[in-house]
UniProtKB/TrEMBL annotation, chain B:
Protein species of origin: Heliorestis acidaminivorans
Listed name of the protein: Carbamoyltransferase
Lineage summary: Bacteria, Bacillati, Bacillota, Clostridia, Eubacteriales
Family stated for the protein in its record: Belongs to the carbamoyltransferase HypF family.
Keywords associated with the record: Hydrolase, Ligase, Metal-binding, Transferase, Zinc, Zinc-finger
Catalyzed chemical reaction(s): an acyl phosphate + H2O = a carboxylate + phosphate + H(+); C-terminal L-cysteinyl-[HypE protein] + carbamoyl phosphate + ATP + H2O = C-terminal S-carboxamide-L-cysteinyl-[HypE protein] + AMP + phosphate + diphosphate + H(+)
GO molecular function, one term: double-stranded RNA binding
Length: 332, 843
């Protein structure tokens, strides 16, 4: 991939590449703006930029991630995502073949998620001024009626659910990036969850009170955000946390806690206590929720500030704080 | 203010005898409450025919006597000489009073009032008189598990507030029977004003329950002993919390205990029925015997006799590879009653699950310990404060605290009077610089204790332990609140460690009070200086496990100069990355691999795989982590060096408890000097040194590889280069090369371990020698957990003393993080009133 004045041809190629994969909707019309008609409810917008090394990793690539990330951000607010805009910043020297497979993966994920890519942009920067490829996506959706979610609905007695194993994405990226070989390959959980979420909200109306995708900082940081916002304590049960054996082994070795590792296909659901089982069953039926579990409960805050506590196998409670960089040794 | 000395002078000038009647007021401070002080005064006053009164108040004891000048003179002379054995007088203030004409000498009720920091009495072990009452059939205290007198019994663990009176203890709800009441009121009785006095009629009681808490019928003693003989584990409610107890000679019981408590290797402490039992297994010096049977009755780490295992077949199960063993004596009447003719040895380990503090209440024990024990031995005298057993070891003729808690806490520790010298060596009064605010030092992260400082003394809390769990934090906060209330102190300034994620520091940062953050090893350094009341600039030799350094890396070998205000780092260990942080700390073989890799490059990593073939994969991964800088913080910790050598010698590859690898390595050499119970002679030091050491080099610059693998933090340190031009690094390359050659030649591993220790000691000796000359300093303070290694301590002490230096080491506090808060507090005390400042270390 080249850049600059002589890059007109390349630019052309890129345009063709995109048109080849985004075969539907306003993008084909090549207008400067896309007109989005008939949103069936109040619009919801979310935007995110994706920067990841390596951009191909077990379980996905930056293209898939760029769709899943933004779609999930919309979905956890209760919205139904419909449209996506995509903006690429490409570094000179990026292989066309790599770009094509990223674009293909992005298009495929968008299709799976049922969202249409309606606008796009591409910039090429000089070599050394980017990590191969950055993608920004903006998602547009609408909020269906009777989907009121929010911190204010959370109360003591609510249960905390997750749709599968914890920490896979972060560990997969780390081991891929460093070439660390563990016995079993760790795969990212990267996936758009709007369909799973919609299914739950439809089949169990009113049961879910709040959702948040547990991306950077992992389950612990996400839970702590909820605790801080509500002043309630979030109690997690170590024995019920779904963690893959290989992920547990790898994180122990790395000295990193899977609870702080990023996920790209996991959502924490705060569910009304007496409906947790019902929600769990619906989740488990969905392909992206087979390993779902009730992992904890909301309790009345014991101190001024909301705490996240992990009840360990031995019965004591570890205090989980926000992630603050790599853990420094403390054993003296 | 008048001192006793000047009072004596005054008396010498006195003229008349007998006829002149005067009144004297005497105010005493120190450890004068709950130690039989008032009855002592009562008897003394009667002896000299004096009238007046004595009372306890929050500041100490006040006495008013009226009588002949001669009698008062004798009274004052004898008073400090024959004082009760447990008491300590810090100050006596005398004032003359107008005569009131008292008719008798009485003990007045305690008074509340304003006060400075006063001593809260620690718990006192069962005294010989009460012990014989227990076994005396005719005594009304025969086999009564809660008997006590003014010379013994619970204090700190049952007291709610001061002054120390029955009403302010957890005995308040037990109403005295008439007999107890008359003993309590009789000044000539041993139990006169013994606040927790109790008897079978009116006092607390003991009962045995099954593991679900259902009471078991029958004689609790008999049933308990049956359970011991059957190899069962019983949680016993002791003085400062629960113990897990089983038969010390019962293999199955010990196996079960280790398995259920998930404690595969950590040595288990024993309680022996009597001294003779201990002497069969261990060599016991006079000093050790005195400590074992004294009022504090701590766990004393003793050297095993060579033939010990023939007397105690379960020894390997109890202490693993250790050649020492921790013993204590029954320190409560309840303990005394646990034993029988055929039951002379009980394992007594702390009654808690991982992450929990000691179980304190019956309810806590039931929920926490049910999965470990077969039964509970409960009683209904509430424990108000936890107190783990203290652990001490007698090394080279001096006592070292491994843990300072029951029996010592919360006795106050006097702080140095602030006298500093100006640059011409003239003393400068720094009273104005000393911080008069009440200070709370929150301590470290593990083996936590905290300290409260007010007036001229500090109170170091009982062992709090881990604070990374909610239960640990609650213990910390409750204990803090309790001690604050007891001492009537409200902290105005908080001190914590600079570590970004120590839980204690995080708590402290949230309190909206002036905060001082102190570097970990500065605190260790000052802890030692303040312990010896030294305030002038000195050298510090701090060998430790983990301390967050001012450059963002992990420190742990600091040879420094400095004072309470600041310090300068002069020597350290060449830093190396720790892949996985604490995971590498728990797996010394990984640390060993990194040491070899850093020292010898590719070859070193390959060598490591030959050492630990079954871990080759893990080593490859560790290497990748180091190269890719994945969670591999830099560390210059001495503790890690010990870990690595321990793994290379095949002593300990993985630590199952804190410091295991280093402790077991130290154990290989400890007995070489026959350190137990006596002072080591110069000739023995020479002989140990003659067994050899490895060459070492001291570098001005880090080797390239380090700069390459370093993290941002080191770059930061490099930027401060002007400040760091003095910093020198101990390079481990030559030491490791020598060590590997010895291993290759099949040299005895005890000799290798010894040579390693010698190398470190000689490095310290050389570095300190250079520093002493350059900086014109003559005092060196030792500190940090590594100095609990008896051989290293002894070697370093003797080598430095041979240089003519004054060598200080922690004596009233532990060298490890259990003493950290004391150092933090002392630093805050001398930081002046400037508000929130950060103790400044350089490099
Ligand atoms: Fe330390
Ligand atoms: Mg996002
Ligand atoms: Zn007694
Ligand atoms: Zn009685």
């Amino acid at each position: 991939l080249a850049h600059g004045d002589g890059g007109a041809l390349t630019y052309q190629l890129i345009q063709e590449l995109f048109l080849k994969y985004f075969t539907e909707g306003p993008l084909q019309q090549q207008n400067d703006g896309a007109l989005l008609r008939d949103l069936p409810g109040p619009p919801v917008v979310s935007t995110d930029s994706f920067v990841i090394t390596p951009y191909f990793f077990p379980g996905g690539d930056i293209g898939k991630l760029a769709v899943a990330g933004t779609v999930n951000d919309l979905a956890v607010t209760g919205a139904e995502p419909l449209y996506l805009t995509v903006s690429f910043i490409l570094e000179e020297g990026l292989l066309m073949a790599d770009l094509e497979s990223i674009v293909a993966s992005l298009a495929q994920t968008a299709q799976e998620a049922g969202v249409a890519v309606v606008a796009g942009d591409t910039k090429v920067v000089e070599k050394g001024r980017g990590d191969g490829i950055y993608i920004n996506t903006t998602g547009i959706g609408f909020l269906p009626e009777q989907r009121e979610l929010g911190y204010q609905r959370i109360e003591a007695g609510d249960k905390i659910l997750i749709n599968g194993t914890v920490g896979d994405h972060g560990l997969a990226i780390l081991s891929k990036r460093s070439g660390l070989a563990f016995d079993t390959e760790l795969r990212s959980d990267c996936a758009p969850l709007n369909n799973l979420i919609a299914t739950i909200l439809e089949k169990c109306p009113g049961a879910v009170k709040f959702m948040r995708d547990a991306t950077r900082g992992g389950v612990a940081t996400t839970a702590k955000e909820i605790a801080l916002a509500t002043g309630k304590d979030l109690l997690l049960w170590e024995e019920d946390l779904p963690i893959r054996e290989e992920a547990a082994g790898a994180s122990e070795f790395l000295g990193l806690d899977p609870l702080y590792m990023a996920n790209e296909g996991k959502v924490l659901f705060i569910v009304q206590g007496d409906r947790a089982q019902e929600v769990l069953e619906v989740m488990k039926e969905h392909q992206l929720g087979q390993e779902s579990a009730i992992i904890g409960t909301v309790e009345k805050g014991k101190r001024e500030e909301g705490h996240v506590l992990l009840k360990t196998f031995f019965g004591s409670h570890r205090i989980l704080e926000m992630m603050a960089g790599d853990p420094l040794p403390r054993i003296c | 203010m008048d001192s006793l000395a000047s009072a004596k002078n005054a008396r010498r000038k006195g003229k008349a005898i007998g006829a002149i009647i005067k009144a004297q007021k005497i105010e005493l401070r120190g450890l004068v409450q709950a130690v039989g002080f008032r009855p002592y005064i009562y008897k003394l006053a009667h002896q000299w025919g004096l009238r007046g009164w004595v009372n306890n108040h929050t500041e100490g004891v006040t006495i008013v006597v009226e009588g002949s000048e001669e009698a008062i003179k004798h009274f004052l002379e004898v008073l400090p000489q024959d004082k009760p054995p447990l008491s300590r007088i810090d100050s006596i203030v005398l004032t003359e009073q107008p005569l009131r004409g008292y008719q008798d000498f009485i003990i007045r009720e305690s008074q509340e009032g304003q006060r400075l920091l006063t001593s809260v009495p620690p718990d006192v072990a069962l005294c010989p008189d009460c012990r014989s009452d227990l076994h005396e059939r005719k005594s009304r205290y025969y086999q009564y598990p809660f008997t006590n007198c003014t010379n013994c019994g619970p204090r700190f663990t049952i007291v709610q507030s001061l002054p120390y009176d029955r009403a302010s203890t957890s005995m308040a709800s037990f109403e005295l029977c008439p007999t107890c009441h008359s003993e309590y009121k009789d000044p000539w009785n041993r139990r006169f004003h013994a606040q927790p006095i109790a008897c079978p009629t009116c006092g607390p009681e003991v009962w045995l329950s099954d593991h679900q808490g259902k009471p078991i019928e029958g004689d609790w003693r008999q049933k308990f002993q049956e359970k011991m003989r059957a190899g069962q584990i019983v949680a016993v409610k002791s003085l400062g919390g629960f113990h897990l107890v089983c038969h010390g000679r019962h293999t199955k019981a010990l196996e079960k205990l280790r398995q259920r408590k998930r404690r595969p290797h950590k040595p288990l402490a024993l309680m022996a029925r009597d001294k003779a039992v201990i002497e069969e297994i261990c060599l016991v010096s006079l000093a050790e015997e005195k400590m074992l049977t004294g009022p504090q009755a701590p766990i004393v780490i003793l050297e095993q006799r060579p033939s010990a295992v023939t007397k105690l077949a379960t020894l390997p199960l109890l202490t693993g590879v250790m050649k020492t063993i921790g013993f204590m004596m029954p320190y409560t009447p309840l303990h005394e009653l646990l034993f029988a003719d055929d039951l002379d040895l009980l394992v007594m380990t702390s009654g808690n699950q991982a992450g929990f503090p000691l179980a304190r209440t019956n309810e806590e024990a039931l929920t926490q310990l049910a999965s470990i024990v077969d039964a509970f031995l409960f009683h209904n005298r509430p424990i108000l404060s936890r107190a783990d057993d203290s652990v001490l070891r007698y090394i080279d003729g001096t006592w070292h605290f491994y843990r300072r808690s029951r029996g010592f806490v919360p006795d106050s520790i006097a702080l140095p009077i602030a006298v500093q010298k100006d640059n011409r060596g003239h003393p400068v009064s720094t009273a104005s610089q000393a911080n008069s605010r009440t200070i709370l030092a929150v301590g470290g992260e593990m083996k936590n204790t905290f300290a409260l400082l007010g007036g001229d003394s500090a109170v170091l809390s009982q062992h709090i332990g881990g604070v990374h769990t909610l239960e640990g934090q609650e213990n910390f906060l409750e204990s803090l609140q309790h001690l604050q209330k007891l001492l009537d102190l409200e902290p105005e300034l908080i001190v914590c460690d600079r570590h970004p994620t120590y839980h204690t520091a995080q708590l402290a940062r949230r309190w909206s009070k002036p905060l001082l953050e102190v570097q970990h090893h500065h605190a260790h350094f000052i802890a030692t200086l303040a312990d010896h009341s030294v305030t002038e600039k000195s050298m510090g030799v701090i060998l430790d496990g983990t301390g967050y350094g001012d450059d963002g890396t992990i420190w742990g070998l600091e040879i420094i100069t400095g004072d309470y205000r600041s310090f300068q780092r002069h020597y350290t260990l060449r830093p190396l990355p720790l892949p996985g942080g604490d995971n590498a700390v728990k797996k010394p073989y990984l640390t060993a691999a990194v040491f070899l890799g850093e020292a010898f490059g590719e070859q070193g990593w390959e060598e490591a795989k030959r050492f630990f073939p079954e871990d080759a994969k893990a080593i490859t991964r560790a290497k990748q982590m180091v190269e890719q800088k994945i969670n591999s913080p830099l560390s210059s910790s001495a503790g890690r060096f010990f870990d690595a050598v321990s793994a290379l010698l095949g002593i300990c590859k993985e630590s199952t408890y804190d410091g295991q690898a280093a402790i077991e390595l130290g154990e290989e050499v400890t007995l070489r000097l026959g350190l137990a119970g006596r002072e080591v002679k110069r000739a023995e030091i020479e002989e140990a040194l003659s067994l050899g050491h490895y060459p070492f080099s001291i570098r001005k610059k880090l080797p390239r590889t380090i700069q390459k693998t370093s993290q941002d933090s080191l770059t930061k340190a490099e930027q401060n280069k002007e400040n760091c031009s003095l910093l020198r690094y101990l390079d481990y390359t030559e030491i490791l090369a020598g060590l590997l050659a010895d291993i290759e030649n099949c040299t005895d591993k005890g000799i290798i371990a010894l040579r390693f220790h010698n190398s470190l000691a000689l490095f310290i000796n050389e570095a300190v020698k250079e520093l002493a000359i350059r900086e014109k300093l003559s005092t060196a303070a030792l500190g940090g957990g590594v100095f609990q290694n008896p051989y290293l301590f002894t070697m370093v002490r003797h080598l430095l003393q041979a240089q003519g230096l004054r060598v200080l080491w922690p004596q009233r506090i532990p060298a490890n993080d259990g003493g950290l808060a004391f150092g933090q507090g002392a630093i805050a005390k001398w930081q002046g009133e400037e508000g929130s400042i950060i103790s400044k270390g350089r490099c």
